[in-house]
Amino acid sequence: MINNPFAPKESKILGIVSRKVGTPVFPNLEHQELIDRIAHLETAIIWKVEHFEQEAKELEQQSSKELYDRTRFEKALYEMMKNHNRDKGSSWNTVKHYLTEFCKKD
């Protein structure tokens, strides 16, 4: 059997969340353990408030009006992370869903 580098491997998910730009939060990790974990990550997926802005702009261009309250983007991002389903994953459709659910203007 050939060892395929793209075959799924057992892994653990490390959630990194910060409300301050450029300041990751790693609860209960010593510096070296943090370095070791980051060095061994196989895949990293990063969603930011900027992604909500990008999707909102595209949707608003299509409708020719402002649809979303930008002050709610961070809350929507945190809700998306809190409710993440690793079996389904996250995509631009997920961002669109959370924009609609949490940021749409009345």
What does this structure look like?
The protein contains 4 helices and no strands. The chain is an all-alpha fold and 106 residues long. Helix 2 crosses helix 4 (92-102) and helix 3 packs across helix 4 (92-102).
Task: Please write out the topology.
Layout: H1 31-39, H2 49-63, H3 73-82, H4 92-102
Helix pairs in contact: 2-4, 3-4
Distance between the termini: 57 Å
Q: What structural class do you assign from the helix and strand content?
A: mainly alpha
Helix content: 40-55%
The average pLDDT value, as a whole number, equals 77
Unreliable segments of 5+ consecutive residues: 1-8
Describe this structure in a few short sentences.
By secondary structure, this protein is mostly helical. The protein has helices at 31-39, 49-63, 73-82, 92-102.
Labels describing this entry:
single chain, 106 residues, mainly alpha, 4 helices, 42% helix, elongated
